[in-house]
Amino acid sequence: MNIAPQKVEVDADVLIIGGGLAGLMSAIEAARIVRNVVLVTKGLAGKSGNTIMSRNGMAAVLEEGYDGDSVEKHVEDTVKAGKQINNINMVEVFAKTACEAIKRLVDLGVPFLMENGSLLRKGSPGHSCKRFLTVDSSAVRSPQTKGLALTLPLVREVVRLGVRVVEGVLMTDVLKHEDQVVGARGLDRKKEKIWVFRTSSVILACGGAGGVYFLSTNSADVTGDGYALALRAGAGLRDMEFVQFHPAVALGPPRMVMSTAPFADGAVLRNKYGERYMVHYSPDMEMATRDVMARANFNEINAGRGTEQVSVYMDFTAIPEEVMSKNYSDLYSCLKGRQVIEVAPAMHFMMGGVAVDGMGRTDIDGLYAAGETAGGLHGANRLAGNALTEAAVFGMIAGRDAAQRAKRIKAVPKVISDRPLFGQNNGTKGSTLNVSEIRKTVRKIMGKKVALVRNGAELEEAVSVIKDFKKQLFNSNIRDWNELLEHCQLFMMLDVGEAIAEAALKRKESLGAHYREED
Ligand SMILES: Cc1cc2nc3c(=O)[nH]c(=O)nc-3n(C[C@H](O)[C@H](O)[C@H](O)COP(=O)(O)OP(=O)(O)OC[C@H]3O[C@@H](n4cnc5c(N)ncnc54)[C@H](O)[C@@H]3O)c2cc1C
User: Fold this and answer.
1) Is 294 near ligand 1, meaning CB less than 6 Å away?
2) Is 98 in the pocket of ligand 1 (CB under 6 A)?
3) Which of 148, 206, 349 to mutate to test the pocket of ligand 1 (most atoms within 8 A of CB)?
4) Would you call 519 exposed, middle or buried from its count of C-beta atoms within 10 A (0-12, 13-18, 19+)?
5) Cβ–Cβ contacts within 10 Å for residue 422, how many?
6) Are 226 and 234 in contact (CB under 8 A)?
7) Is residue 56 within 6 Å of ligand 1 at its C-beta?
């Protein structure tokens, strides 16, 4: 490899990796306590990751007694959905702090839908009381980026507080000295530049892992890096086998995450023979829960009853046009007169992640995780609205704790940053690999063998293919900066794919979102 990158060294009290809701909240809270806070993201702060793609639903108990609700009930509902394997300490902290986090968002200028002078609270499946709030995104034009209503006010605060924002840097590893965090390192995506951050406290807020799967609802930059960074630093992961799939993503163009609401108005699912197959999967037909429907769609496709595009049909014929145009105006305009579209299940959310305590601390001194990167809150399955609230709550808590820690640490040892970069053996030997081909193959394997219905043989096959790719990648030749970036990114994806497949292999029984068929 003939690259001599420039090295940029930056000191920080707290370093936050990720510019979504968790990262922005961490930065804001940390900057209220210490002066030198740096937020680094491989995209743009507040304009990358899954937060901007979200539907803006947030679950929180704002007032004890409203609709009979209480913090205890939010805890109970979350643990029930998670099949009792949640980190109970996290759940309690989460439910108790949710109201404070929402108030903080309101103070920062995030608009919520209102009713009679209060935040509008609705019911939602799995929540026993009305506690589902919605960020008002009416000012955002594109239906794909409604979450900007949530992030943009936070970006303004980050700037106002003087947080240094570094964009377009792929962070590749957390640096340690004698089991303590001393910094982190990343590669500039545009210039041949290595960024080395010297800090005692790093918060991983890199989101989930949609990019590890062939089809996902996630933003393209969400590729599981937070899990890979934690693994490489020696921190533990948990619950990685629990991956939530969305039942129906329209393959497009445009690619759309379909709401399940039209099923209540008469939309139905059909296979390539025109058969309304949900009759074989649930007495509730298309009103079945999302995981039952996702598995049914997956089964139909796998059994060869899907379309040529590896999908099934969502048929709106029974819904009167005036209902479509009134109730589903965004969808109606995208359909452009079509009554049937092709949809497929897609990876949506990671329940598992980096193991943390109720303060967002991992088992490595100085390393934190927040938002979708952290694992434990949701257990085996997630309730709607709990993910955004999680990012706000634990972003806030981790930001504060990391800043307090930074104040206590007098000096950070010098960063040793000359060890080989993530996943490459100095890049001087071996053959040149077709990285994009490997990426495609791995995503397909994850989408087929580590997806909605799993069995031991296929999981073992997935693990073995991934291990083999890792070996090849480690010994491959890297010719230029772009290839180095691609190798590092792919290596992280392979680590995460392997972690998910290994965890799924270990859990022999079906539980929550993890479904094992007979081996
Ligand atoms: C279509 C869709 C709809 C959803 N709707 C809802 C909803 O209504 N309610 C709800 O509760 N949840 C919802 N979710 C889930 C929720 O949006 C996410 O869990 C949440 O936004 C995650 O926030 P985050 O800050 O943890 O990560 P993200 O918002 O994903 O941000 C991750 C950040 O990390 C950066 N990053 C990643 N890797 C690196 C790296 N190596 N180096 C530097 N930077 C890196 C990214 O560029 C990005 O800035 C939805 C998800 C999707 C996909």
Assistant:
1) no
2) no
3) 206
4) exposed
5) 24
6) no
7) yes
Q: Ligand 1 pocket test: which of 51, 194, 347, 394 has the largest number of ligand atoms within 8 Å of its C-beta?
A: 51
Atom of ligand 1 nearest to the CA of 210: 53
d(CA 68, ligand 1 centre) in Å: 31
Question: Residue 331: what residue type?
Answer: L
49 CA → ligand 1 middle, Å: 4
Would you list the domain boundaries of the chain?
8-241+351-408, 246-347, 435-506
Indicate whether residue 217 lines ligand 1 (CB < 6 A).
yes
CA 205–ligand 1 middle distance (angstroms):
9
* Atom from ligand 1 closest to the CA of residue 216: 53
Centroid of ligand 1 to alpha carbon of 48 (angstroms): 8
For domain 246-347, which CATH number applies: 3.30.1490.20, 3.90.550.10, 3.30.870.10, 3.90.700.10? 3.90.700.10
Q: How far, in Å, CA of 137 to CA of 139, rounded?
A: 5
Atom of ligand 1 at shortest range from CA of 385:
11
From 336, 333, 313, 316, select the one nearest 325 (Cα to Cα): 333
Sign of the C-alpha dihedral, residues 18, 21, 24, 28? negative
| Range 435-506 classified under CATH 1.20.58.100 | yes
Domain spanning 8-241+351-408, CATH architecture: 3-Layer(bba) Sandwich (3.50)
Q: Residue 295: what residue type? A: R
Q: Decide if 246-347 and 435-506 have a common fold.
A: no
CA distance 83 to 100: 27
211 lines ligand 1 (CB under 6 A): no
Give the nearest ligand 1 atom to 55 CA: 8
User: pLDDT tens digits for the chain (519 residues)?
Assistant: 667 788 999 999 999 999 999 999 999 999 999 999 999 999 999 999 999 999 999 999 999 999 999 999 999 999 999 999 999 999 999 999 999 999 999 999 999 999 999 999 999 888 999 999 999 999 998 888 999 999 999 999 999 999 999 999 999 999 999 889 999 999 999 999 999 999 999 999 999 999 999 999 999 999 999 999 999 999 999 999 999 999 999 988 888 899 888 998 999 999 999 999 999 999 989 988 888 899 999 999 999 999 999 999 999 999 999 999 998 888 898 888 899 999 999 999 999 999 999 999 999 999 999 999 999 999 999 999 999 999 999 999 999 999 999 999 988 877 666 666 644 555 556 677 889 999 999 999 999 999 999 999 999 999 999 999 999 888 888 888 999 999 999 999 999 999 999 999 999 999 999 999 977
The kind and range of the H/E element at 238 are strand 237-238
* Distance from residue 50's CA to the centre of ligand 1 (Å): 3
| Measured distance CA(244)–CA(247) in Å, rounded | 10
- Cα angle for residues 474, 478, 482 (degrees, 5° grid): 115
List, by residue number, the catalytic residues: 290
